[in-house]
Automatic annotation (TrEMBL):
Molecular function GO terms recorded: phosphogluconate dehydratase activity
Keywords in alphabetical order: 4Fe-4S, Carbohydrate metabolism, Gluconate utilization, Iron, Iron-sulfur, Lyase, Metal-binding
Gene: edd
Pathway of action: Carbohydrate metabolism; Entner-Doudoroff pathway
Function: Catalyzes the dehydration of 6-phospho-D-gluconate to 2-dehydro-3-deoxy-6-phospho-D-gluconate.
Species, as recorded: Polaromonas aquatica
Dihydroxy-acid/6-phosphogluconate dehydratase C-terminal domain span: 406-601
Coiled-coil segments: none
Protein name from the UniProt record: Phosphogluconate dehydratase
Hydrolase found in the keyword field: no
Catalytic activity: 6-phospho-D-gluconate = 2-dehydro-3-deoxy-6-phospho-D-gluconate + H2O
Dihydroxy-acid/6-phosphogluconate dehydratase N-terminal domain span: 68-381
Record InterPro entries: 6-phosphgluc_deHydtase (IPR004786), Dihydro-acid_dehy_C (IPR042096), DiOHA_6PGluconate_deHydtase_CS (IPR020558), ILV_EDD_C (IPR056740), ILV_EDD_N (IPR000581), IlvD/EDD_N (IPR037237)
Length: 605
């Protein structure tokens, strides 16, 4: 299939602008790969320290037989449902590689925090930068430098990007990612959203709301809506970093255990076949574009407009929001999964899942097929679904969609575009996700109401001050201001206002993860207000136009008046409050050095 011209041109543009940094990255990768094996380079005392905790048989294999040694980096904890299943993975992996004459060690653990737990609290202000902490923790784990390959165990929002960023800084190692899978379906998403909106209006009390939430999030596994966690898994499939079809297989059970063992066999197979497929070579500009296309085709999380910029940067590749926007213009929407539809990821998997999506995109020339993956068969293997055949793994081609209300072919998409738009104007650069926004809400023009915090907006809503057409501006929410928390708790009140017939929109330098759903939201506004961005000049009553059709984000104030208007400074009390308590002091340097959202909010540059 001939590659779509826009996909081709965007890829070429990325490759061109990345040539110096990618070349330098690959030079470092090849230099690291050309060294002697780690255990051969190490001094005797160093090696003795490294193997002292291993069983004697494993120690003999590493020291005497010079057997391959696999690093396991895990995000396991039993606080978070998504990572609880990872507890048993290291033992499965060690057992499997021993059968194949190799060894494995848990090289290190990384923190894993949950935005669902911290949403709307001070802890949420650590969330974005936890990605960089995870990347650093991954680097610490791999810095012992005695590994022939690595397995990354993690699932959720910042964890997978952090593991990937860290792994790419050890790009000479063959690396496979190992997910845990989603929890069983609980309370239908549409019902959950309805009860949340009722709670926002005071029609449902805490007991009723808690009952609904407990029925939604109820067992080990990933949350079943298509947020950042599950978008991670789709993108890793599209980049060829998983065992094919692993993403949405439920935790527990023989199939999931066998797929975990297959991840160990896969990474060990790269070594034994002497196939040069380290992660830094797999993740090139084509793989990055494939991930971007898969994100757009499935209506995935807008967080990846930040995270994948950082991921690409870690492989010497430079992408920006223009690249996402140009791809969105030609990539059709093929999936409707909550919050873009009513289905959850289990229903998505049953309807065709990742295999169907990747097959449709490849066949339409919307993804690069000439890419390297962790498997010998290349990216075409990822159009197949795993199953057990007499206790052994087998793969079969993805069939046609089993439910076209959830997954559709390219020939009859939900939309001809990816539902993501770049917005530009005198308020800066922003993005808007319109996958679930009604067509008559793609353009909103109305008077601004400016808020310095989420809490202030909630207070105004509770006082019925927002019962009108309004564009809510929530500022001081960017990386430098307070770590750029997600603002999910704004969705229910804004959805209530929209349900009453008012024309409302949100404009913010914070994040929404795509969870704005049916409410138009211009998010990630850059430069942020705390860095002197234009949101710091907006006043109550200014008319703002959010136009997803033409890509305009504009305050309708005369040029002379706008240029002369004073730029507000973040209040000292607010800045100080954002910097103290819940460990936020430890992240001061990250906030101070953070780049813009469009630059990946990198804190290590």
């Amino acid at each position: 299939m001939v590659l779509h011209p826009t996909v081709s041109s965007v890829t070429a543009r990325i490759a061109g602008r990345s040539r110096p940094t990618r070349s330098a990255y690959l030079q470092q990768l090849h230099a690291a790969a050309a060294r002697d094996r780690g255990t051969d380079r190490m001094g005797c005392a160093n090696l003795a320290h490294a193997v002292a905790g291993m069983p004697l048989d494993d120690r003999f294999k590493v020291v005497t037989e010079r057997a391959p040694n696999i690093a396991i980096v895990t995000a396991y904890n039993d606080m978070l449902s998504a990572h609880t299943p990872l507890k048993t993975y290291p033992d499965l992996i060690k057992d499997e590689v021993r059968k194949l004459g190799a060894t494995a060690q848990v090289a290190g653990g990384v923190p894993a925090m949950c935005d669902g737990v911290t949403q709307g609290t001070s802890g949420m202000e650590l969330s974005l930068f936890s990605r960089d902490v995870i990347a650093m923790a991954t680097a610490v784990a791999l810095s012992h430098d005695m590994f022939d390959a690595a397995l990354m165990l993690g699932v959720c929002d910042k964890i997978v990007p952090g593991l990937l960023i860290g792994a790419l800084h050890f790009g000479h190692l063959p690396t496979v990612f190992v997910p845990a899978g989603p929890m069983p379906s609980g309370l239908p998403n549409k019902e959950k959203a309805r009860i949340r909106e009722q709670a926002a209006q005071g029609l449902v009390g805490r007991e009723g709301l808690l009952d609904a939430e407990l029925k939604s999030y109820h067992s080990p596994g990933t949350c079943t809506f298509y947020g950042t966690a599950n978008s991670n898994q789709m993108l890793l499939e599209a980049m060829g970093l998983h065992v094919p079809g692993t993403a949405f297989v439920a935790p527990g059970g023989t199939l999931r255990d066998e797929l975990t063992r297959e991840a160990a066999r896969t990474v060990l197979g790269i070594i034994k076949a002497k196939r040069f497929a380290p992660i830094g070579l797999i993740v090139d500009e084509r793989a990055i574009v494939n991930a971007m296309v898969a994100l757009l085709a499935t209506g995935g999380s807008t967080n990846h407009l930040i995270h994948w910029v950082a991921v690409a940067h870690s492989a010497g590749i430079v992408i920006d929001w223009n690249d996402f926007s140009d791809l969105s213009d030609v990539v059709p929407t093929l999936a409707h999964v909550y919050p873009n539809g009513s289905a959850d990821v289990n229903q998505f998997q049953a309807a065709g899942g990742t295999g169907l999506i990747i097959r449709e995109l490849l066949d339409a020339g919307l993804m690069h097929e000439d890419v390297l993956t962790v498997r010998d068969g290349g990216i075409r293997e990822y159009t197949r679904e795993p199953s057990l055949l007499e206790s052994s793994l087998a793969w079969h081609d993805a069939d046609a969609s089993k439910d076209e209300s959830i997954v559709r072919p390219v020939a009859s998409p939900f939309s001809a575009t990816g539902g993501l738009k770049l917005l530009q104007g005198n308020l800066g650069r922003s993005v808007i996700k319109v996958s679930a926004v009604p067509d008559d809400r793609h353009v909103i023009e109305g008077p601004a109401r400016v808020f310095d915090s989420q809490e202030a907006l909630h207070a105004a809503f509770n006082n019925s001050e927002l019962d009108r057409d309004v564009v809510c501006v929530v500022r001081w929410q960017g990386p430098q201001a307070n770590g750029m928390p997600e603002l999910h708790k704004l969705t229910p009140p804004l959805a209530v206002l929209q349900g009453k017939g008012y024309r409302v929109a949100l404009v913010t330098d914070g994040r929404m993860s795509g969870a704005s759903g049916k409410v138009p939201a211009a998010i990630h506004v850059s430069p942020e207000a705390a860095a002197g961005g234009p949101l710091a000049k907006v006043r109550d009553g200014d008319v703002i136009r959010v136009d997803a059709l033409t890509g305009l984000l504009q305050v309708l104030v005369g040029d002379a008046e706008w240029a002369a208007r004073q730029t507000d400074v973040m209040p000292d009390g607010l800045r100080a409050g954002n910097a103290i308590g819940m460990g936020r002091q430890l992240f001061t340097g990250m906030r101070r050095h953070a780049l813009t959202a469009e630059e990946g909010a990198l804190s290590w540059m």
